Every structure is written in C-alpha cells, then in structure tokens.
C-alpha cells in the first residue's frame, strides 16, 4: 500500500516527497475536499497523512472516513511548529470514537 500527504506546509510536503511519498500542497480551504476525496477513492493508498490545521478545518469529513472505513489510515503529519504544541492525537481520536479517556 502507498502513502499520501495532504499538507498546508511546503517544507513538510517537500520532506515527504524526498522520502518517496506522493502528496499535494493545499493552501486554500476549497482545495482540500477534492484532493481528499480522490485519495480516499483510490484503494492503493493505505495511509493518508494530513497536516493538523487541515484536519481541524475538516474534522467532520475526516472523522466520517476514520470511523466508517478500515482503510486508509488517516494520521496527522506535524510540521516543525505543530510538534511543539501537539496533544496526544491517538488518545483524542479514541476518546471521540468510544468516549473513553486514556
């Protein structure tokens, strides 16, 4: 399975591309949904990495896929500034899904 990056940070996207991972730079809110839908429909992708600001702005759409589809796995791709302020996203996702705090 392949990996894909949807990022609002050019540096993060460039780093992933250097590692051989395809992706797209999304700088406007209207550009997220078409790119996200295209990746979700492509069954070759097993992991989709999305930057925190894009996840926050599109939380409902992303949660619908996270909680109703086995693949792809959607994970947060933190940039240099995001890493410093990040909370435990795995615990947050579990809390949203089943209501248990870890």
Number of domains: 1
Query: What CATH architecture do you see?
Result: 3-Layer(aba) Sandwich
Kindly, what is the distance between the CA atoms of the first and last residues, rounded to a whole number of angstroms?
30 Å
Order of helices and strands: EHEHEHHEHH
Family: Belongs to the V-ATPase F subunit family.
InterPro entries: ATPase_V1-cplx_f_g_su, ATPase_V1_fsu_sf
Protein name: ATP synthase
Keywords: Ion transport, Transport
What is the fold's blueprint, element by element?
Layout: E1 2-7, H1 10-18, E2 22-25, H2 32-41, E3 45-50, H3 52-57, H4 59-68, E4 73-76, H5 80-85, H6 89-98
Parallel strand pairs: 1-2, 1-3, 3-4
Describe this structure in words.
The longest helix is centred in the middle third of the chain and has 10 residues. This protein has one domain: ATPase, V1 complex, subunit F (Rossmann fold, 3-Layer(aba) Sandwich). Helix content is 50%, strand content 20%. The chain contains 6 helices and 4 strands, in the order βαβαβααβαα. It has a 4-stranded parallel sheet with strand order 2-1-3-4, with helices on both faces. By secondary structure, the chain is of the alpha/beta class. Strand 1, helix 1 and strand 2 form a beta-alpha-beta unit. Keywords: Ion transport, Transport.
Output the keywords:
single chain; about 100 residues; alpha/beta; Rossmann fold; 4 strands; about 20% strand; globular
């Amino acid at each position: 399975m392949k990996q894909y990056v949807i990022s609002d940070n050019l540096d993060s996207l460039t780093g992933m591309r250097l590692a051989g991972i395809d992706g797209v730079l999304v700088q406007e809110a209207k550009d997220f949904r078409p790119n996200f839908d295209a990746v979700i429909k492509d069954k070759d992708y097993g992991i989709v990495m999305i930057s925190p600001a894009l996840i926050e702005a599109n939380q409902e759409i992303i949660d619908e896929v996270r909680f109703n589809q086995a693949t792809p796995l959607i994970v947060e791709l933190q940039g240099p500034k995001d890493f410093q302020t990040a909370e435990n996203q795995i615990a947050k996702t579990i809390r949203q899904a089943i209501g248990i705090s870890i």
